[in-house]
Amino acid sequence: MDEIHKKILQRNRSNLVKDLDPSKLYDGLLEKGIFTQDMIDEIQSAGTRRNQARQLVQDLETRGSRAFPLFLQCLQETGQESLAELLQNGAPATPTQVVRPEIQPLPITPPVDGNKPGKDVKKPQIPSSSPPGGEKPRPGPGRVRRDSLQGYKMDASPCGHCLIINNMEFEPHSMLKNRKGSNIDCEKLERRFKTLNFVVEVRTNLRQKQIKHELLTLSKKDHSQYDCCVVIMLSHGTEVNHNRFPGAVYGVDGQYVPVQHITNYLNGQHCPSLQGKPKLFFIQACGGDEKDMGFEVSPDEVEPSSGGVDDQTDAIPMSSSSDSLSMSDEPDARPTLPTPSDILVSYSTFPGYVSWRETQSGSWYVQTLDCILEESAATVDLVTMLMMVNNEVSQNSAKGLYKQMPGSFNFLRKLLYFQTQT
């Protein structure tokens, strides 16, 4: 950054620290290449808004010559025009075009015979240019990365918030059956994530608007001191149109919330303090009304396991049946996915199929997930553990006939290892 721009920032530092809202700037600063994600993560780790603003201004001075005008642009785009004008009044007019290096013709030199000794030929100097956002980021002395390329930082205590929404008893007009056994799932997951050092909150039998309110409340929390956030949905589900994540989850009033909307509450725009941190969603709900009868394999490929006589599903009632199976969730087929980072959505079943639940011991998916976390969380990363869950659940059979296949949409950038008690 030019010295004159550094002096302008220094002269106005107190006003910037007092009035700047860094949370509105992070997406733009990242998009324009002024900061890297790791630098934004470190700024967010400063804690309060004032501390984040102070750290942002300090780091801004280390960026390239384009950082100052791009920062002014970010201020204007996020409704902080007064601060932009304050800085602009002390800044000389600067061109907004990208400054390109002047290309000099190379000097013509006679060919050199490599077999004959001679004087060294000096190579011409070619001007170098910096990327639009500034110099290539270099870790300065004392700068500590929040996480490594191998794994997310997961050592905060507590590690983060965990919200469990457990819908068991549905209103009569919803035409959805009560979910017997879901309380068992809820108790297991509450106990498990407390063991993993999360602050767990449980909400029971929520209508659609109440689900949205709880998610909004979670998104408004300050997650700066935490490393992760978890949302668990236990309910009926259905198929909806989508462009990100398939499926939707029902409130007890029969109105649903799409899974892609559930994830949006915690994205970078709506929850800046979770930017760059893993956001995990576990969905125990049907993906459709199809029952998977599986296919034949050789006996040594599977260890047969059968469900109990009280197996039920979490899918919408589509037709009456005499086998006492309740159907409640439908799938989202052929999803079109963007590239949201640091999000993982784990589904209890493959899109299009029912999800099985035993009234006395809970759902196959949650039972297996809880068991795998207990046995392997100390040494195995999350994605690998979810593959282990997939394998275990796939070997179960309901009524000795029907199968289930969990799955996930994984946009995590690094490995994730939970905290465990030693």
From TrEMBL:
Keyword tags: Apoptosis, Hydrolase, Protease, Thiol protease, Zymogen
A GO MF term: cysteine-type endopeptidase activity
Biased composition (Low complexity): 318-328
Superkingdom in the source lineage: Eukaryota
A UniProt-annotated Pfam family: CARD
Domain annotation CARD: ranges: 1-90
InterPro entries the UniProt entry points to: CARD, CARD_CASP9, Caspase-like_dom_sf, Caspase_cys_AS, Caspase_his_AS, DEATH-like_dom_sf, Pept_C14, Pept_C14_caspase
Gene3D superfamilies: 3.40.50.1460, Death Domain, Fas
Active-site residues, Swiss-Prot/TrEMBL: H236, C286
Keyword Iron-sulfur applies: no
UniProt domain Caspase family p20: residue ranges: 158-290
Keyword Protease carried by entry: yes
Domain Caspase family p10 as annotated: residue spans: 333-420
SMART domains for the chain: CARD, CASc
GO annotation (BP), single: apoptotic process
Chain spans, region Disordered: 95-148, 293-340
Similarity field: Belongs to the peptidase C14A family.
Protein name (database record): Caspase-9 isoform X1
Phylogenetic classification of the source organism: Eukaryota, Metazoa, Chordata, Craniata, Vertebrata
